Amino acid sequence: MPYDVVMDVPAPSSGVIARASAVLTALSRHEPDGSTTSVLAREASLPRATTHRLLADMAEAGLIDRDVRNGRWHLGSQIYLLGTVAATRYDIVELARDSLVSVARETGESAYLSTRQGDETVCVATEEGSFPLRSHVLQVGTRFPLGVASAGLAILAHLPKEEQDRVIAAITPEPTWRDPHDGAGIRRRIARTRRTGYAENPGLIVEGSWGLGAAVFDSAGNPLWALSITGVQTRFGRERLPRLGRLLMDEAHNLTKRLG
């Protein structure tokens, strides 16, 4: 495997599905607190009336619920049931558990498994390390655009250049992110990732926090997941980085083989 403005008009069924998916994805970012119709409409780039109609239809199907006390929307029981069925085919958390434990034990840092979902990565599993200080950048459910945190950068670095360009052009930096998150900055980090084999996030999301990531591939060679570690900056000195990167790549390669 490689290491080297939306009109509020009736839409065809495919358009409805895409819109509903955008609303569900936006809602997932707000769990467990839930979200309002207005916020979901803004994040899904849809008119409020369209979003409310989609939410009502999905609530009727059990895909989402509404808290009658505060009016906030939540993912529903049907989403959970569908997810448990799909997990038998797509869930790699159990396969990755040994890798997460090994990485956390060998490095002392917290280890994470993230999966690609469209142009984002979602953290799906964690294993705490023994070192008492942690960066708290990641937890299960945390999302970042591809190319931002170390896991997403590791995946992006192994995508075709045309796809890289499309993803980079769509990134809107958050005010709290540290520069550079422009196209040139991300491309420099992609080039470095291709050279070393692992991605590095030198405090670009949270000052004083450091992260490393390595891509995990499916049987067709597609980078669909990433193993990563995060910790405080003082734990990622230049003399230690290569060893941490190599260990992470070795474990990502082992997981790739198990998936194959």
UniProtKB/TrEMBL annotation:
Q: Can you give the residue ranges of the IclR-ED domain?
A: 78-260
Q: Report the record's Gene Ontology biological process terms.
A: negative regulation of DNA-templated transcription
Q: Which InterPro entries match?
A: GAF-like_dom_sf, HTH_MetabolicPath_Reg, Tscrpt_reg_IclR_C, Tscrpt_reg_IclR_N, WH-like_DNA-bd_sf, WH_DNA-bd_sf
- The reply to whether NAD figures as a keyword in the UniProt entry is no
| UniProt keyword annotation of Nucleus present | no
What keywords is this UniProt entry annotated with?
DNA-binding, Transcription, Transcription regulation
The molecular function terms of the Gene Ontology recorded here are: DNA binding; DNA-binding transcription factor activity
Regions annotated as coiled coil = none
Record's Gene3D superfamilies? 3.30.450.40, Winged helix-like DNA-binding domain superfamily/Winged helix DNA-binding domain
Where does the record place the HTH iclR-type domain? 14-77
Query: PANTHER family given for it?
Result: HELIX-TURN-HELIX TRANSCRIPTIONAL REGULATOR, ICLR FAMILY, TRANSCRIPTIONAL REGULATORY PROTEIN
* Name of protein: HTH-type transcriptional regulator KipR
Organism per entry: Gordonia insulae
